[in-house]
Amino acid sequence: MEAAILTAIAARLRSALAREPLTGHLLRVDGEAVGIVDAARAQRLRAFTEVFTVGRDAIEFVPGLHDARSRSRAMAEVARELAREAALTAWRDEPYAVSERYGAAPAFVLERAAARYFGIRTWAAHVNGVVAAAGDTTMWFARRSPHKAIDPDMLDNLVGGGIAADHGVAETVVKEAWEEAGIPAELASQARAAGRFDVCRVNPDGVQRETVFVHDLWLPPGFVPANRDGEAVSHRRVSLPEAARLIAIPSGPDEVTVDASLVVLDFLLRREALPGEVAQLASLRALLRREPAPLTLPSPRTRGEDAT
User: Fold this and answer.
1) What kind of fold does domain 25-121 have according to CATH?
2) For the chain, where do the domains classified as CATH 3.30.750.160 start and end?
3) Quick one: pLDDT at residue 98?
4) Where are the domain boundaries for CATH 3.90.79.10 in the chain?
5) Taking Cα atoms as reference points, which of 289, 245, 292, 243 lies closest to residue 267?
6) What Å distances lie between residue 180 and 77, 127, 166, 258, CA to CA?
7) Predicted structure pTM score
8) What span, in angstroms and rounded, lies between the C-alpha atoms of 257 and 250?
9) Which of its termini does the chain have fewer beta carbons within 10 Å around, N or C?
10) Max CA pair span of the chain
11) pLDDT at 298
Protein backbone atom coordinates (compact mmCIF):
# COMPACT_ATOMS: atom_id res chain seq x y z
CA MET A 1 0.00 0.00 0.00
CA GLU A 2 1.42 3.39 -1.00
CA ALA A 3 1.80 6.02 1.72
CA ALA A 4 0.22 8.52 -0.71
CA ILE A 5 -3.10 6.78 -0.07
CA LEU A 6 -3.12 8.25 3.45
CA THR A 7 -2.77 11.75 2.04
CA ALA A 8 -5.63 11.12 -0.37
CA ILE A 9 -7.87 9.68 2.37
CA ALA A 10 -7.18 12.65 4.63
CA ALA A 11 -7.82 15.19 1.86
CA ARG A 12 -11.06 13.58 0.79
CA LEU A 13 -12.53 13.17 4.28
CA ARG A 14 -11.38 16.58 5.54
CA SER A 15 -13.15 18.14 2.58
CA ALA A 16 -16.31 16.10 3.19
CA LEU A 17 -16.37 16.90 6.89
CA ALA A 18 -15.25 20.52 6.71
CA ARG A 19 -17.89 23.00 7.81
CA GLU A 20 -18.37 26.49 9.03
CA PRO A 21 -19.86 26.88 12.50
CA LEU A 22 -23.52 25.89 12.42
CA THR A 23 -25.86 28.80 11.91
CA GLY A 24 -29.61 29.18 11.95
CA HIS A 25 -32.17 28.56 14.67
CA LEU A 26 -31.75 26.11 17.52
CA LEU A 27 -34.76 23.89 18.16
CA ARG A 28 -35.20 23.94 21.92
CA VAL A 29 -37.28 21.79 24.26
CA ASP A 30 -37.48 22.88 27.89
CA GLY A 31 -34.44 25.06 27.31
CA GLU A 32 -32.28 22.31 25.81
CA ALA A 33 -31.17 22.46 22.17
CA VAL A 34 -32.14 19.24 20.37
CA GLY A 35 -31.92 20.36 16.73
CA ILE A 36 -30.89 23.11 14.36
CA VAL A 37 -32.76 24.57 11.39
CA ASP A 38 -31.36 26.92 8.77
CA ALA A 39 -32.89 30.34 8.12
CA ALA A 40 -34.99 29.32 5.11
CA ARG A 41 -36.49 26.32 6.90
CA ALA A 42 -37.08 28.36 10.04
CA GLN A 43 -39.03 30.88 7.95
CA ARG A 44 -41.23 28.04 6.64
CA LEU A 45 -41.87 26.82 10.18
CA ARG A 46 -43.24 30.23 11.19
CA ALA A 47 -46.46 29.25 9.43
CA PHE A 48 -47.06 26.41 11.92
CA THR A 49 -48.30 28.82 14.57
CA GLU A 50 -50.11 26.11 16.54
CA VAL A 51 -46.83 24.21 16.94
CA PHE A 52 -43.88 26.62 17.10
CA THR A 53 -42.79 30.03 18.23
CA VAL A 54 -39.88 31.19 16.10
CA GLY A 55 -37.57 33.80 17.56
CA ARG A 56 -34.39 35.48 16.36
CA ASP A 57 -32.22 32.38 16.77
CA ALA A 58 -34.42 29.76 18.44
CA ILE A 59 -37.53 27.70 17.74
CA GLU A 60 -39.62 26.46 20.64
CA PHE A 61 -42.88 24.59 21.00
CA VAL A 62 -45.97 26.50 22.01
CA PRO A 63 -46.88 26.09 25.71
CA GLY A 64 -49.69 23.64 24.99
CA LEU A 65 -47.20 21.10 23.63
CA HIS A 66 -45.71 20.36 27.01
CA ASP A 67 -44.86 16.66 26.84
CA ALA A 68 -43.34 14.10 24.50
CA ARG A 69 -46.69 12.70 23.38
CA SER A 70 -48.23 16.04 22.38
CA ARG A 71 -45.03 17.20 20.69
CA SER A 72 -44.76 13.90 18.78
CA ARG A 73 -48.32 14.22 17.48
CA ALA A 74 -47.73 17.80 16.39
CA MET A 75 -44.43 16.96 14.70
CA ALA A 76 -46.05 14.09 12.83
CA GLU A 77 -48.49 16.56 11.26
CA VAL A 78 -45.71 19.02 10.47
CA ALA A 79 -43.63 16.28 8.84
CA ARG A 80 -46.57 15.11 6.73
CA GLU A 81 -47.18 18.63 5.48
CA LEU A 82 -43.48 19.13 4.66
CA ALA A 83 -43.49 15.79 2.84
CA ARG A 84 -46.49 16.89 0.77
CA GLU A 85 -44.42 19.93 -0.24
CA ALA A 86 -41.53 17.64 -1.28
CA ALA A 87 -39.37 19.34 1.35
CA LEU A 88 -38.17 16.03 2.83
CA THR A 89 -36.35 12.97 1.57
CA ALA A 90 -38.37 9.84 0.88
CA TRP A 91 -40.84 8.99 3.64
CA ARG A 92 -39.66 6.00 5.69
CA ASP A 93 -42.51 5.53 8.18
CA GLU A 94 -39.81 5.02 10.81
CA PRO A 95 -39.81 7.11 14.01
CA TYR A 96 -36.60 8.44 15.52
CA ALA A 97 -36.32 9.29 19.21
CA VAL A 98 -35.14 12.88 19.67
CA SER A 99 -32.55 13.29 22.41
CA GLU A 100 -28.99 14.55 22.69
CA ARG A 101 -28.04 11.51 24.82
CA TYR A 102 -28.44 7.95 23.63
CA GLY A 103 -31.01 6.06 25.64
CA ALA A 104 -32.41 9.15 27.38
CA ALA A 105 -36.15 9.78 27.44
CA PRO A 106 -36.96 11.46 24.11
CA ALA A 107 -38.28 15.00 23.89
CA PHE A 108 -40.48 13.68 21.06
CA VAL A 109 -40.31 11.21 18.19
CA LEU A 110 -39.96 12.30 14.57
CA GLU A 111 -40.31 10.63 11.19
CA ARG A 112 -36.87 9.67 9.90
CA ALA A 113 -37.34 11.58 6.64
CA ALA A 114 -37.51 14.84 8.64
CA ALA A 115 -34.42 14.21 10.78
CA ARG A 116 -32.02 16.35 8.78
CA TYR A 117 -34.63 19.04 8.13
CA PHE A 118 -34.76 19.64 11.88
CA GLY A 119 -31.08 18.84 12.48
CA ILE A 120 -31.81 16.37 15.28
CA ARG A 121 -29.19 13.95 16.59
CA THR A 122 -29.59 10.51 15.05
CA TRP A 123 -27.99 7.20 15.92
CA ALA A 124 -26.78 4.48 13.58
CA ALA A 125 -25.13 1.07 13.73
CA HIS A 126 -22.60 0.06 11.05
CA VAL A 127 -20.80 -3.23 10.60
CA ASN A 128 -17.50 -4.01 8.89
CA GLY A 129 -18.09 -7.39 7.28
CA VAL A 130 -14.61 -8.94 7.23
CA VAL A 131 -13.13 -12.31 6.34
CA ALA A 132 -9.91 -13.93 7.50
CA ALA A 133 -8.61 -16.64 5.17
CA ALA A 134 -5.19 -17.92 4.11
CA GLY A 135 -3.46 -15.47 6.40
CA ASP A 136 -5.13 -12.46 4.79
CA THR A 137 -8.03 -10.17 5.73
CA THR A 138 -10.62 -8.97 3.24
CA MET A 139 -13.65 -6.72 3.59
CA TRP A 140 -17.11 -6.71 2.03
CA PHE A 141 -18.67 -3.57 0.53
CA ALA A 142 -22.27 -3.14 -0.60
CA ARG A 143 -23.48 -0.95 -3.45
CA ARG A 144 -26.51 1.09 -2.49
CA SER A 145 -29.57 0.99 -4.69
CA PRO A 146 -29.81 3.81 -7.23
CA HIS A 147 -33.27 4.44 -5.81
CA LYS A 148 -32.06 5.28 -2.29
CA ALA A 149 -33.07 8.77 -1.15
CA ILE A 150 -29.60 9.44 0.30
CA ASP A 151 -26.28 8.54 -1.36
CA PRO A 152 -27.82 6.45 -4.18
CA ASP A 153 -25.58 4.02 -6.09
CA MET A 154 -22.59 4.60 -3.81
CA LEU A 155 -20.50 1.98 -2.05
CA ASP A 156 -21.29 1.38 1.61
CA ASN A 157 -20.45 -0.84 4.55
CA LEU A 158 -21.86 -4.35 4.29
CA VAL A 159 -24.36 -3.48 7.04
CA GLY A 160 -25.53 -0.12 8.30
CA GLY A 161 -28.74 1.50 9.40
CA GLY A 162 -30.37 4.07 11.59
CA ILE A 163 -31.53 3.14 15.07
CA ALA A 164 -35.27 3.66 15.30
CA ALA A 165 -37.17 4.66 18.42
CA ASP A 166 -37.59 1.77 20.86
CA HIS A 167 -34.75 -0.19 19.17
CA GLY A 168 -31.32 -0.87 20.61
CA VAL A 169 -27.90 -1.03 18.98
CA ALA A 170 -27.58 -4.83 19.04
CA GLU A 171 -31.17 -5.27 17.85
CA THR A 172 -30.51 -2.91 14.94
CA VAL A 173 -27.33 -4.77 13.96
CA VAL A 174 -29.19 -8.09 13.76
CA LYS A 175 -32.15 -6.58 11.89
CA GLU A 176 -30.04 -4.70 9.34
CA ALA A 177 -27.63 -7.60 8.86
CA TRP A 178 -30.48 -9.83 7.70
CA GLU A 179 -32.24 -7.22 5.58
CA GLU A 180 -29.14 -5.82 3.90
CA ALA A 181 -26.88 -8.86 3.58
CA GLY A 182 -28.88 -11.98 4.44
CA ILE A 183 -26.77 -12.64 7.54
CA PRO A 184 -28.69 -14.91 9.93
CA ALA A 185 -29.30 -13.69 13.46
CA GLU A 186 -27.03 -16.27 15.10
CA LEU A 187 -24.10 -15.04 13.02
CA ALA A 188 -24.98 -11.32 13.15
CA SER A 189 -25.19 -11.46 16.94
CA GLN A 190 -21.45 -12.23 16.96
CA ALA A 191 -20.65 -8.70 15.72
CA ARG A 192 -18.22 -7.04 18.12
CA ALA A 193 -18.73 -3.45 19.22
CA ALA A 194 -15.65 -1.40 18.29
CA GLY A 195 -16.48 2.11 19.48
CA ARG A 196 -18.34 5.09 18.12
CA PHE A 197 -17.75 8.38 16.36
CA ASP A 198 -19.72 11.52 15.56
CA VAL A 199 -20.56 13.05 12.19
CA CYS A 200 -21.76 16.62 11.68
CA ARG A 201 -22.32 17.80 8.09
CA VAL A 202 -24.47 20.38 6.37
CA ASN A 203 -26.23 18.75 3.43
CA PRO A 204 -28.85 19.94 0.93
CA ASP A 205 -31.57 18.19 2.95
CA GLY A 206 -30.47 19.78 6.23
CA VAL A 207 -27.96 19.05 8.97
CA GLN A 208 -26.70 15.52 9.59
CA ARG A 209 -25.79 15.10 13.26
CA GLU A 210 -25.23 11.41 13.73
CA THR A 211 -23.47 9.15 16.19
CA VAL A 212 -22.29 5.94 14.54
CA PHE A 213 -21.79 2.77 16.60
CA VAL A 214 -19.08 0.71 14.88
CA HIS A 215 -18.95 -3.09 14.80
CA ASP A 216 -16.74 -5.78 13.27
CA LEU A 217 -18.24 -9.07 12.12
CA TRP A 218 -15.90 -11.86 11.05
CA LEU A 219 -17.66 -13.87 8.37
CA PRO A 220 -16.92 -17.39 7.10
CA PRO A 221 -14.80 -17.38 3.90
CA GLY A 222 -17.63 -19.04 1.98
CA PHE A 223 -20.30 -16.56 3.00
CA VAL A 224 -21.81 -14.54 0.13
CA PRO A 225 -24.10 -11.58 1.01
CA ALA A 226 -27.65 -11.58 -0.35
CA ASN A 227 -29.71 -8.42 0.02
CA ARG A 228 -33.28 -8.89 1.24
CA ASP A 229 -34.83 -5.42 1.26
CA GLY A 230 -33.83 -3.97 -2.11
CA GLU A 231 -31.55 -1.34 -0.60
CA ALA A 232 -28.33 -2.90 -1.97
CA VAL A 233 -27.85 -4.11 -5.54
CA SER A 234 -24.46 -5.83 -5.39
CA HIS A 235 -21.54 -6.71 -3.12
CA ARG A 236 -17.78 -6.64 -3.48
CA ARG A 237 -15.08 -8.31 -1.37
CA VAL A 238 -11.72 -6.53 -1.44
CA SER A 239 -8.31 -6.58 0.20
CA LEU A 240 -7.54 -4.05 2.91
CA PRO A 241 -5.22 -2.06 0.60
CA GLU A 242 -8.08 -1.89 -1.92
CA ALA A 243 -10.47 -0.80 0.86
CA ALA A 244 -8.06 2.06 1.66
CA ARG A 245 -7.93 3.02 -2.01
CA LEU A 246 -11.72 3.07 -2.27
CA ILE A 247 -12.26 5.41 0.69
CA ALA A 248 -9.74 7.82 -0.86
CA ILE A 249 -11.80 8.22 -4.05
CA PRO A 250 -13.55 11.65 -3.99
CA SER A 251 -16.13 10.97 -6.71
CA GLY A 252 -17.19 8.56 -9.41
CA PRO A 253 -18.74 5.09 -9.53
CA ASP A 254 -16.51 3.68 -6.78
CA GLU A 255 -17.07 6.49 -4.28
CA VAL A 256 -17.84 5.26 -0.76
CA THR A 257 -20.29 7.15 1.42
CA VAL A 258 -18.66 9.44 3.97
CA ASP A 259 -20.11 7.55 6.93
CA ALA A 260 -18.94 4.19 5.58
CA SER A 261 -15.52 5.63 4.75
CA LEU A 262 -15.07 6.66 8.36
CA VAL A 263 -16.14 3.21 9.56
CA VAL A 264 -13.60 1.58 7.23
CA LEU A 265 -10.89 4.06 8.23
CA ASP A 266 -11.52 3.23 11.89
CA PHE A 267 -11.07 -0.49 11.15
CA LEU A 268 -7.86 0.05 9.16
CA LEU A 269 -6.37 2.17 11.94
CA ARG A 270 -7.30 -0.32 14.65
CA ARG A 271 -5.78 -3.16 12.61
CA GLU A 272 -2.64 -1.10 11.93
CA ALA A 273 -3.24 -1.75 8.23
CA LEU A 274 -2.17 1.70 7.05
CA PRO A 275 1.45 2.76 6.46
CA GLY A 276 2.63 6.21 7.46
CA GLU A 277 4.38 8.37 9.99
CA VAL A 278 3.00 8.78 13.51
CA ALA A 279 1.83 12.33 12.83
CA GLN A 280 0.08 11.32 9.62
CA LEU A 281 -1.78 8.49 11.32
CA ALA A 282 -2.70 10.80 14.19
CA SER A 283 -4.26 13.25 11.74
CA LEU A 284 -6.43 10.45 10.36
CA ARG A 285 -7.50 9.40 13.85
CA ALA A 286 -8.52 13.00 14.50
CA LEU A 287 -11.12 12.71 11.73
CA LEU A 288 -12.96 10.19 13.91
CA ARG A 289 -14.53 12.59 16.38
CA ARG A 290 -15.33 10.47 19.42
CA GLU A 291 -17.58 12.98 21.16
CA PRO A 292 -20.40 15.02 19.64
CA ALA A 293 -19.72 18.67 18.94
CA PRO A 294 -21.72 21.00 21.22
CA LEU A 295 -24.94 22.20 19.65
CA THR A 296 -24.36 25.94 19.87
CA LEU A 297 -24.50 28.96 17.60
CA PRO A 298 -21.67 31.43 17.00
CA SER A 299 -21.82 34.58 19.10
CA PRO A 300 -23.44 37.64 17.49
CA ARG A 301 -19.96 39.18 17.14
CA THR A 302 -18.71 36.08 15.28
CA ARG A 303 -21.76 36.25 13.01
CA GLY A 304 -21.01 39.87 12.27
CA GLU A 305 -24.04 41.14 14.17
CA ASP A 306 -24.32 43.85 16.74
CA ALA A 307 -24.12 42.14 20.14
CA THR A 308 -25.83 45.05 21.90
Assistant:
1) Transcription Regulator spoIIAA (3.30.750)
2) 25-121
3) 98
4) 4-19+122-285
5) 243
6) 30, 11, 20, 19
7) 0.93
8) 10
9) C
10) 69
11) 76
Residue 171's φ and ψ, nearest 5 degrees, are -60, -40
pLDDT band, very low/low/confident/very high, at 1 (cuts 50, 70, 90)? low
| Structure-model confidence comparison of residues 133 and 234, the more confident one | 234
> Cα 75 to chain center, whole Å?
21
Terminal Cα distance for the chain, rounded: 56
Task: Read off the pLDDT of residues 120-147 as tens digits, 9 standing for 90 and up.
Answer: 999 999 999 999 988 899 999 999 999 9
CB 196 within 8 A of CB 214: yes
- As its CATH architecture, domain 4-19+122-285 has Alpha-Beta Complex (3.90)
